[in-house]
Amino acid sequence: MKIDVVTLFPEMFGPLDVSIVKRAREAGLLELRITDLRNYTHDRHRTVDDRPFGGGPGMVLKPEPIFEAIEDLAKDKTHVVLMTPAGRRFDQALARELSAKEHLLFICGSYEGVDERVREALVDDELSIGDYVLTNGGLPAMVVIDAVTRLLPGALGDDESARDESFSHGLLEYPHYTRPAEFRGMKVPEILLSGHHAEIEKWRAEQAKARTAQRRPDLWKRSGGQEPATD
Ligand code: JF5
Q: Where are the domains of the chain?
């Protein structure tokens, strides 16, 4: 998969040079290119924004540099994504959907937003990572890129993939423990030390359901949950 990012802050993208995304890039599963929007300006001050028509506070990203950047970087099959709090809410199902695309291009908004003509003419999809306002779309783009990259075939190790598989059912995770069996007086649940694999699976499933029902009633309803979970 190829991913392009057009941003005013290319220096933000260090987090994509570590861990699983780094490994995916090194393995050739992901080709990631970060482009500075200012490279597509032509004036001495490398101007990317201007005051809003009609007045009001803040600045708006000008259309010309964004159009030039997208026309340079996008091909016919490119899925152009604008990161904005006004987009549809990003979730795991959307991560799956995006992971099937050949080429993604993220436009990272800033300031009050981008000129509406960018949306009308260039953008295929507007995504939000949640109901809060950030200073620019760099962090949201990285969130989406991270979630998509780990879904690319071969990006996760066998262990990671197998674990992920068992949690694609829309519930929260069961509690995890490792050694020591007792730490500062806190004991690991006896069942996990018992070696009874069927019983352990049952316990974990119950824990996952109880947690989901209690903490995330929205997910619980979506997963078809009914029984009053006891924790
Ligand atoms: C942005 C104008 C975009 O703040 C966000 C955001 C929050 N959830 N999802 C995205 O994007 C940055 C800021 C101002 C446009």
A: 2-149, 166-222
